[in-house]
Amino acid sequence: MIRPTTLRRMTGWVVSLIVATSVAGCGSESGDAAFDEIALPTFSKDRVAREAPVEVRRLLSGGEWSHYAMSPSPDGRYLTDITWAASGVGGDVALVDTETGVETPLTTAGATGSGEFAEWQVFSPDGGRIAYTWYAQHGRELRSIGVDGSDMMVHLSSSRSGSYWVAPSDWSPDGRRILAYLASPGAEERQLVTVDVETNEMRVLQEGLGPHWPRAFFSPDGRFVAYLASVDEDPEKAGIFLVSSDGTRQAGLIWTPDEERLLGWLPDGSGILFHRLTRDSRAIWKLPIRDGRRSGPPELIKDDVWQMLGLGFSDDAFFYGITVGNNGVHVASIDPETGRVLEGLAPVTEVSGTSRSPAWAPDGGRLAYIEQDLGETRIKIRALTGEVLQEIPVTIALRSGSRLAWVQDGILLDKAGADSEDLYLISLDTGEASEIRDALGPREVPIVSEDASKVYFHQGGGGEAIEFDPGTGAEKIVAAYPSHTPTALPDHPDAWVYESRLSPDGGLVAHFVRGDGPSGDPSAPYRDREKGWAVEIVSRSSGEVLATARSLSLERPGRGVNQWSRDSRYLFFFGLEEGADSADRPHLMALSVEDGALRSFPSIYTRPWTMDLAVSSDGRHIAVTTDRSKPEVWRMTFNTGGR
Questions:
Q1: Alpha-carbon distance 107 to 348, whole Å?
Q2: Which of 12, 204, 319, 511 has its CA 20 to 30 A from that of 130?
């Protein structure tokens, strides 16, 4: 059997064609050379309409739809979704009526504040059940439930199977098996498995799939499975493959220098749909397949489909989600001494792409951030006046968790990739990226020293605070405070400390504390906003508590979004004070070391899933990533072809 990850990147289309033909265990009649001929031109909308007439209609707009968890019912009337608890802690499986937009929960555990929640979901072929991922207190589970909320069944559990991550993607046409991606402890790559609904017997179809979006689909006749996997030594590079449902035969279908995302089988079995992403276009294509073989070159179905995520097929249509607008870096000017907002949040750029991960220069007069637009990733540097001073192309693969930190010798970039989170130093003179260290801790935002010569972070997110010199690579342990892992410190015998942040001058430490005691369960409040928090600023030399703020609701404590001003005078974080309405938006707060005052800035806020926070050297300028997006759901029907 050919493992997808054993394929190697080819620079020429002719070589790619030879490889595609030779590895196709199920056969192949056309290769990527044919794809090159039809895919490279830019098609007008009129031509697309003539060649592959389809009709699209928007069904839902706005709301808080979770596209990745959505799947259409066979009749197209309903979509699965996640309804999140009002507290933000926990979420349940839900059905959305596509005609009315009304959302009805099917489970109830997520709404109790337990911290449990649902994720990936998919309808059974008869529309009677929904398979879904459940984040339980003890780990992930693969479950299914009736569409009336009854007869919940657990098919895989981390306590039984050892899996730490699982995502269902499809059901077999007879409804007897669930198709899922699964990763086990210690495994670097995911497996494609089937799970028998009645016996819970698990069978591995493919291994070594890489870190890609979990998308795999049975053919309508149940004989084959199309899936997404890595195609060469670079795990970020994906291709679309085919395997027989008994796991004995495999074929490579599509892999190109561009990005392809598998959308599913056309209901009549005549081929698969995929979304092709290039620098200048986003288009939906059909790849004809007959008897497990490619039966012709790809056919353009619809061009100009941006910010799209496929939701799947009903009996007669294809559903997909569109995100209108993007995340973007915004800046504001404040006075931390008086609590006044001098200039409210304003975007730094108006590009159609995304911007995130802001970082201020040591002089406080320049802001760097990551910008992604039209398939390109760059670090952009702007002056406070808004003038673009520099653009540095980023050639290494990044993910949404990548962060920047500005130091004396350049800009630190945490790759935050799928296989590693290596730390790079970007030269402002040449733009060259040099790998200087293994990863920071998970979700770690480094603390830059007062003179910008060193950074502090917690090794592996644990208890050892490391001082690291980017110029020389020298490092040493300077403290033993927890980060990201709830810990009971001797000074807090009746509380959990969820995060500790060293000040840039190294003389202070801020503890984020929850007073439920070591006998309590530390996992639930760690996930999202919860009441009963305290923030303490302590002198490292004397142990004296210099400032305290209590009875707070904090947003995502322990996620590394809490930041010091460079002069160590103020600690900034997002939260709410005691007595605030639970529906209020968590906003920026500043705790003063000098007078112990807590000052709030209600107009400086952001949604928790886009949280980035950067503070200028003097604490008077703030940069955050805010969510400007609006989710929509669209339905595509085929006038000719298809089903």
A1: 41
A2: 204
Show the CA angle centred on residue 587, arms to residues 444 and 380, nearest 5°.
Answer: 55
Q: Report whether CATH 2.120.10.30 matches the domain 4-324.
A: yes
For the sheet containing 340-347, what is the strand order?
A: 340-347, 327-335, 621-627, 613-615
- Rounded to a whole number of angstroms, the distance between the first and last alpha carbons of the chain is 32
At 245, which amino acid appears?
Answer: S
The whole-number pLDDT of residue 486 equals 63
**Spatial distance between the Cα atoms of 409 and 429, rounded to a whole number of angstroms:** 10
Alpha carbon separation from 633 to 56, 97, 99, 452 (Å, rounded)? 10, 12, 12, 46
d(CA 58, CA 69) in angstroms, rounded, equals 18
Using CB atoms within 10 Å of the CB of residue 581, give its burial: 0 to 12 exposed, 13 to 18 middle, 19+ buried.
Answer: exposed
Rounded Cα–Cα distance for residues 360 and 598 (Å): 23
The model's pLDDT over 545-604, given as tens digits with 9 standing for 90+, comes to 999 998 887 765 545 578 899 899 999 998 888 766 655 678 899 999 999 999 999 888
Beta bridge partners of 192: 181, 206
Q: How far apart are CA 411 and CA 421, in angstroms?
A: 16
Rounded-to-integer distance, Cα 482 and Cα 511, Å: 9
H/E segment holding residue 329: strand 327-335
- Note the pLDDT tens digit of each residue in 321-332: 988 777 789 999
Q: How big is the CA angle at 169 (ends 168 and 171), to the nearest 5 degrees?
A: 90
pLDDT in tens, 79-121: 999 988 655 557 899 999 999 989 999 998 866 656 688 999 9
pLDDT in tens, 356-400: 889 999 988 999 999 987 668 899 999 988 899 999 998 877 766
Radius of gyration of the chain (CA): 26
Other C-beta atoms closer than 10 Å to the C-beta of 137 total 11
Give CATH for domain 327-627: 2.120.10.30
Copy the structure tokens of residue 604: 């400086």
Cα dihedral 18→19→22→24 (10° resolution): -120
List the one residue out of 163, 201, 217 whose CA is nearest residue 185: 163
Give CA 585 to chain center in angstroms.
22
Q: What is the pTM of this model?
A: 0.65
Residues 6+ apart with CB under 8 A from 590: 334, 336, 339, 570, 571, 572, 598, 599, 601, 619
> The tokens of 619 are what?
């604490």
The segment(s) of the chain belonging to CATH 2.120.10.30 are 4-324, 327-627
More confident residue, 503 or 208: 503
Residues 6+ apart with CB under 8 A from 642: 266, 267, 268, 270
**In this structure, are residues 381 and 368 in contact, taking their beta carbons and an 8 Å threshold?**
yes
Q: How far is residue 73's CA from residue 59's CA, in Å, rounded to a whole number?
A: 14
Give burial (CB, 10 Å; 0-12/13-18/19+) of 526: buried
Residue 256 to residue 277: CA distance in whole angstroms: 10
Q: Tens digit of pLDDT for each residue in 139-182?
A: 789 999 999 999 999 999 876 555 568 899 999 999 999 999 98
Amino acid (one-letter) located at 388: V
Q: Which two tokens stand for residue 57?
A: 């209609």
User: b or e along 41-69 (b: 16 or more beta carbons within 10 Å of the residue's beta carbon)?
Assistant: eebeeeebeeebebeeeebbeeeebbbeb
The dihedrals phi and psi of 50, each to the nearest 5 degrees, come to -75, -40
